[in-house]
UniProtKB/TrEMBL annotation:
Organism this protein belongs to: Methylomonas methanica (strain DSM 25384 / MC09)
UniProt entry tagged with the keyword Hydrolase: no
Cited InterPro entries: Cyt_cd1_C_sf, Haem_d1_sf, Host-pathogen_enzymatic-act
Signal peptide: 1-18
Annotated keywords: Signal
Protein name in the entry: Cytochrome d1 heme region
Superkingdom of source: Bacteria
Pfam families listed in its UniProt record: Cytochrom_D1 (PF02239)
Length: 392
């Protein structure tokens, strides 16, 4: 028998060799593509466009969204069936899945990365969970009115100060939730903010929360630096004399964009993108576009804004140059462009082309196709750099 001292170097060498064969994976390179009809999600590499794995068994993903842990290792998927699923992006596996409600519309992760908040339609309210274990920490029913009805909760975002902000669709309210004590959160309620807030945006600096109103003209604005001033109505005169048009798909306000001093937002039911001066919240311009805009998303440097559309124009993408707010390019990636996501520094944008069963990648400088990947009815695309951004 060989002495132990002579065997150990050999074993150590074999171990090193085995480790060298393992493909290391950087979390900053990763993203998630939702495959809505399959109840699955692809884990993708965003620097060298490729699918790495497919995670199945995620439930109803017809309105799914994703947030990421601070270290970008874990993705939290919010399903329409009330499912909350934690995925390990390095091990390509589900860590834990809980069905916490009957109908969920999205969620957020706290500033310190320790608390997951979920907004629910059925029953209406917000629930808080431990990001590590998915243990439920708190249940905040969205009660409103004298008869204590429950409202659908929309527009849930994270905000500085370990807070969350959300809107009550039927309740016509905005709630500011202080989750420093996550088992006993404190809720500040703003009433009569406008009829039927349907989604919301947090500005990238965490300063302003804006809720779109479906039941009346204008937007509801809450200054999170001075919440004691209450909610202010802006753009109340926009479109008041225009003929009403059918709304084919509600625009997503979390797809609004801030580019410098400008806020670009989709006009509800109209073929326009609105340009708002966020210094005084005045309407600067109405940009004509090819259809009813759904997502209006800015390249990270703010120079370009990419717009997709509701049916029957959802095969198109238009690119707006913020220099003069002109449409500089109309692309036709394929039928059913559902969502867009820019790479962290904006050299490329990924498009989910649902009805063509593919994801397309475009070079944002040349506006030409750079790659395409197969995907089963893709919808949302979410990259892990979102972990370092507020309100996403």
């Amino acid at each position: 028998m060989k002495p132990l001292c002579s065997v150990l170097p050999v074993l150590f060498s074999l171990l090193l060799n085995a480790c060298s064969q393992v493909e290391l994976r950087a979390t900053g390179d990763l993203g998630v593509v939702i495959e809505r009809e399959q109840g699955s999600a692809q884990i993708v590499n965003t620097s060298k466009p490729a699918m790495l794995s497919r995670i199945e068994g995620l439930g109803d993903l017809s309105h799914a969204s994703v947030v990421f842990s601070r270290d970008q290792r874990y993705a939290y998927v919010f399903g329409r069936d009330g499912g909350l699923t934690k995925i390990d992006l390095l091990r390509d596996e589900i860590v834990k899945r809980v069905v916490q409600a009957g109908n969920s519309i999205g969620g957020a992760i706290s500033q310190d990365g320790k608390v997951i908040a979920v907004s629910n339609y059925t029953p209406g309210g917000v629930k808080l969970f431990d990001a590590d274990t998915l243990e439920q920490l708190a249940d905040i029913p969205a009660v409103y009115g004298e008869d204590n009805k429950l409202s659908k909760v929309v527009g849930l975002v994270d905000a500085p100060g370990q807070r969350f902000v959300c809107s009550l669709f039927e309740g016509n309210q905005i709630w500011l939730i202080d989750a420093k004590n996550s088992r006993q959160p404190q809720v500040q309620k703003f009433h009569n903010i406008g009829k039927q807030p349907y989604d919301a945006l947090l500005t990238p600096d965490g300063h302003y929360y804006l809720a779109g109103l479906f039941g009346e003209k204008g937007l509801a604005l809450l200054d999170l630096w001075q919440p004691e001033l209450g909610v202010k109505h802006i753009l109340q005169d926009y479109g008041k004399d225009d003929a009403q048009m059918p709304v084919y798909k509600m625009p997503h306000l979390e797809g609004w964009t801030v580019a410098g001093d400008w806020l670009l937002v989709p006009a509800v039911g109209r073929h326009e993108v609105l340009v708002i001066d966020k210094r005084d919240w005045s309407l600067v311009k109405r940009v004509p576009v090819a259809g009813q805009p759904v997502f209006v998303m800015s390249r990270p440097d703010g120079r370009q804004v990419w717009v997709n559309f509701a049916f029957p124009d959802n095969q198109k993408i238009q690119v707006i140059d913020v220099k003069d707010f002109s449409v500089v390019k109309t692309l036709q990636p394929g039928k059913g462009v559902m969502h867009m996501e820019f790479t962290p520094r904006g050299e490329a944008v990924w498009l989910a082309v649902r009805d063509e069963d593919r994801v397309m990648v475009y070079d944002t400088e040349t506006l030409t196709e750079a790659a395409r990947l197969p995907a089963q009815k893709p919808s949302g695309i979410f990259f892990s750099n979102r972990a370092n951004q507020l309100g996403l």
